[in-house]
Amino acid sequence: AAFPQACLIASVHRLSLLERFDTVVILEAGRVADCGPRDEVLARHPHLSTQVHARAAPG
């Protein structure tokens, strides 16, 4: 990476983009509903994990 010490904060609605991030924060009604490493958060929210992988698949 060009900036290994940099932090990027992004708001995404396209779930396939979550694959690009190390840490994920899920907001519900403007409040933090969950936060942590991407794989751990997706494991706690299987409905999101299914959507992320379905949308990331080619086709």
TrEMBL record:
Keyword Zinc-finger: no
Species per Swiss-Prot/TrEMBL record: Variovorax paradoxus
MF-aspect GO terms: hydrolase activity; metal ion binding
Keyword Metal-binding: yes
Pfam families reported in the protein's UniProt record: HUTI_composite_bact
Keywords: Hydrolase, Metal-binding, Zinc
InterPro entries: MQNX/HUTI_composite_N, P-loop_NTPase
Record domain Aminodeoxyfutalosine deaminase/Imidazolonepropionase-like composite: where: 27-47
Protein name: Aminodeoxyfutalosine deaminase/Imidazolonepropionase-like composite domain-containing protein
Lineage: Bacteria, Pseudomonadati, Pseudomonadota, Betaproteobacteria, Burkholderiales
